[in-house]
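Sequence and structure are kept together here, with a separate record for every protein. A complete record is shown below as an example:
=====
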Amino acid sequence: MKKTLLRSTFLLLLVSVIAKILSFLVRILLARTLSESAMNYYTLASPTMVIMITLAQMGIPGALSKVIAQSKDTRKPLLASILVSMINNIVIIAAFFILLPFLSFYILKQREILPVLYAILPLIPLVSISGILKGYLFGKQQHVQATACQLFEEGSRILFLLVMFSMDHSLTNVTMAKIAMYSISVGELCSSLYMLFALRQHKHDIRQLPTLFHTLHRQQFDEVLSISIPMTGSRLIGSFSYFVEPIVMVIGLSALQSDTMIHA
């Protein structure tokens, strides 16, 4: 028992370190490949991406992990989380699809960044799926598998970026920023595929999910939401602060330029 615990801890630590190294390599690759303008577009769109991910996940991965760890029947909390996430994703995608042009034209005052912002939308369902799968694995005490998905996420991002940037060396700044943003969706997709493969021993439980709709009650939804909503509130504060930073910077620069013109 003690040897198994030590081995699992060592594997978890090793996987986490390798994942961090791969994440660092992704940043180096982007810094060396993207032009200055493309990096500015990507950096300016990143706070919007963070707040969209926070709203899309709605704290469900952490809540699902806790509920499944304490539940005898893990299928109902999983199905409740999937249903809540699907409805939430539809609302978030529709809302941001309408709001992104206003954010680009009038708030950030960068019309060129709109395609980069739209490139975030495919990430919303993918990050929700990967979050649910990760929460399920953590709830099932499969910590190594849940952490190892980061290797596939970062590794696939590196491969995608290398292939896309090597295919055409005359990419525009906006296209390069879009590719960098799409790489995150590719990473989440590969991460989800790995976790689905890791859950093959629970294949029977997952296949029974569609037949459990009529057995769901409000209790299953309340169990997940009572944990996820407070978690979302705490994360949303930091995400919103990060989201507001570039807006304040743009407003401040605009005011400074106007003041300079007046006194010139």
Notes: Residues 112 and 174 are 7 Å apart (CA to CA). The mean pLDDT is 82. The chain is about 85% helix and 0% strand.
